[in-house]
Structures are given as C-alpha cells and as structure tokens.
Amino acid sequence: MSDIRIATAEDQVLLEKEAKYCSYGDTVHYIEPPRIFSRCEGSYVWDTEDQAYLDLQMWYSAVNFGYANPRLNNALKKQIDTLPQIASQYLHKGKIELSEMIAVDAKNKFGLDGRVHFNVGGSQSIEDSLKVVRNASNGKSLMFAFEGGYHGRTLGASSITSSYRYRRRYGHFGERAQFIPFPYHFRGPKGMTKEEYGSHCVQQFARLFETEYNGVWDPKVGSSEYAAFYVEPIQGTGGYVIPPMNFYSELKQVLDQHGILMVVDEIQMGFWRTGKLWSIEHFDVKPDVIVFGKALTNGLNPLGGIWAREELINPKIFPPGSTHSTFASNPLGTAVGLEMFKMTSEVDYGAMVMAKGKYFLEGLQELQKRFPIIGDVDGLGLALRCEICTADGFTPDKATLDYMVEEGMKGDMVVDGQKLGLILDVGGYYKNVITLAPSLEISYPEIDLGLKLLEQLLNRAMKR
C-alpha cells in the first residue's frame, strides 16, 4: 500500500493559488491534497499526472451518459455554430420542442396536462417550484419533506433540506419544513417486511391529520397549513435509500385527501438513472410537480426546470414574469437536452439500464457475502448503495468508508496490469454509504473492473 501522494510542483502552485483566491464556500476537499484533473472520457477521468480513475459517481449523477459523450458534445458544437445565445425572454426552437417533449411524455405517462418552466440548475428550479406551490396555495409557506432529504443549498431549498448544517448560519427565508421519517428499512424497526414498514410510515404521517392538536390540520374548514410534500423518490445524498414499492401510492392518497401537493425532486434520479425517465414512475403515482436538472444536459450546460400540472402553472395562475433567470432555457442547454431525449429513444434504454443495474447489484451482493463490513446493498437501475458498517454488519462506520475513499484516490490499485484509481461518493444519514451512480453507458467489463477495485479497497479496509 502506497503512502499519501504528494502533489506535483505544478499542482502545488495551483493549490497555493486556490488557497489564496478561491472561495471555500463552494468547495469540498474529500482528500488532501486534492487532485487536479485534466481530461475525461467515458467512465474515466485523468489527473495532471495522467493517472486514470474509474468514476462510479459521475459528478453526482450529472453525467449519466458518460464523460465527453460524442453525440451530446456534437449537439453542443452544432448549436454553437447556429444560435449559441439568445436572451431568455425571446423564443427559440429548442426551448419549445424540449418543453413539448417533456410535457407530452408526462401526459402519456400520468394522463395530466402540464407545462415546463426552465431555470439554470436544480436548486434554482426548486426555488421556482416553491413559488408555484405557494402561489397555488394562497401563499402557504410550510412544507413537508423527508428526514434524509436533500433539495439544494439556496435559501429556500435549504429550508426543505433536512440537514440543519446547510442553514445553520443563515436561518430561514420564508419556507419552513416539517421533516417526516423516510422508510429506511435497513435501519427501521425489526419484525416488519419492507412493504409493512412503508405502510407503517404512511400511517404515522396520516395520524397528523386525525385531530387539530397535531398541528397541521383544521378539521372545521378541512384545510392544512402545509402546501406541499417534497420527495426524492430515491433519496440521493441521504444514501440512495430505496423505499418499498407501495409507499408513494399510499402516501399520495393521504396527500390528495388533504389537498397537499406532491413535488417530486428528480434532480439526481431523473433521466434514466433508475431505468426510467423519472424514478417516480416505478411507484404508480401521479406527481403534481416534477423538478429536474443535472443529467438533462449531461453536465455540459447548467439547465434545469420543472414540469407542473396545468392547473398550477397556466398563464392565468402563474403569469409572465412570475420568475426569471437570465440564462434559463438557453439554446446550448436545450439543444443538448433534445439530443439526449432522441438518443435514449432509439434503443430500449430503460431495459439496458435495468440489466446493467441487476448485474452490478449481484456483484455487490457477492461482495457482501464475503465482507462482513458491508451491512446493506440495494439498487434500482444504476442507482446503487453499499453501506459500510463495523464487523457486526449494522453499526455505521464512517471512518472506514473515509479511508476507502482516500485509498481509492491514491491511484495505486492494479487490475490486469493497469494502475487505476477509483472515485466513490459518500452519502447516507451517517456518511457511511457508498452511493454508486456509474455512467449509464458503462460496459459490463467496466462493471467487473469497478467490483474488482471495490474488492481491493475492502481488503485494505479489513487489514488496516
């Protein structure tokens, strides 16, 4: 096992400049010294020493279709040569056609008419969704959200994100959330099946409406103080926790009974990560609002947005100028988004992702049998989780996972004569979960390689 790598002289100069000139407010250094990267392709990135790293987190699922995807890159290049920029208050073909594609797809799947509204990213689109639901509910500013949920770090988004640390120094600005337990079966009460636990969580939520003294419901007028429930169908930063399949349909019944909207945050799980365009499609419910971002442009352009039911977003209820961003619906982003939709429609993309996910999950399950520090593995499509615990297989072990992440970034593992590093992402309530979001274009040999690299890291962890 190698010692910690020393930054090259050139990298050291750059790191000294970063320390002096860059805000640390938008930075997280997972290792010291941090790597500086120079190129990327497919499932790999290379640092300034030309050391390759297999990436199993793909920019927090923003690069679903692989780094430097030729088809999507070419769509961007083509648009640069025709209409590279136009003010967002003016129309262009890409905005209209991408909106149509998303809205027609939602109509076909959910039977609901709706409209699409763009912004520059996930958090900003969450802010727009808050405007939509507050407007539709006559200004109600209270929301439900989940423990373990993450919706962004802008002021409004952090108010409905369960981690207090994201708003501790800033307080609230309008929105407040009541955080509801998520059906995290691995850490839930024993003696229940996953489906039973899902129903139990819904029942515990439903009891809030049994009497006015639970603080959320006025039975005399049949009105809730809460406008919407913000959900990630599969929790992202919370550790890729996959709920039971009965959960959301039962939850939506409670929400509909009490006039509370369901806002579905697909920023991390959207665009085929789970084998469907939207992860909520697995759960047989009709969302009121969908928020999206990240992989819409494969990380090539900051573009996100929302789809909302016609009743919530038509021009009479949400008129022109209700919200605005200079770079929203920009033609470079919409061109890539359109090409992504075309590319994924030409093959059975969902079946491909589900098959690869099943194969990867089976590999993780084999590792789980051999390594007692793996407490739980699960997956839906290519959203996969591997929970690292102490030898009892249950107690969270953040320190061991931190060690594995650092070892993976040394770039000193060898498989079939090739020296490689491995990029992993850390999530979970206890920061002990490997959240695996590989490229959806990952090959089966690359999945095998990823499993071999994980095995080496687990062996190092067990021996330390």
Describe the structure.
The chain is an alpha/beta fold and 464 residues long. The protein has two domains: 9-68 and 348-463, Aspartate Aminotransferase, domain 1 (Alpha-Beta Complex); 75-345, Type I PLP-dependent aspartate aminotransferase-like (Major domain) (Aspartate Aminotransferase, domain 2), CATH 3.40.640.10. It contains 13 helices and 18 strands. The chain has helices at 9-21, 58-61, 70-80, 93-110, 122-136, 155-159, 194-206, 247-257, 310-313, 331-345, 349-370, 398-408, 444-463; strands at 37-41, 44-47, 52-55, 114-119, 142-146, 176-180, 217-218, 223-224, 226-231, 261-265, 289-292, 304-309, 374-380, 383-388, 413-415, 418-423, 426-427, 433-436. The strands form four sheets. The chain has a seven-stranded mixed beta sheet with strand order 4-12-11-10-9-5-6, with helices on both faces. A five-stranded mixed beta sheet has the order 1-2-3-16-15. Strands 13-14-18-17 form a four-stranded antiparallel beta sheet. A hairpin with a 2-residue loop joins β15 (413-415) and β16 (418-423). α11 packs parallel to α13 (444-463). The longest helix is centred in the last third of the chain and has 22 residues, at 349-370. It is globular, with a radius of gyration of 22 Å. It starts with 8 loop residues before the first helix and ends with a helix. The model has no long low-confidence stretch (mean pLDDT 95).
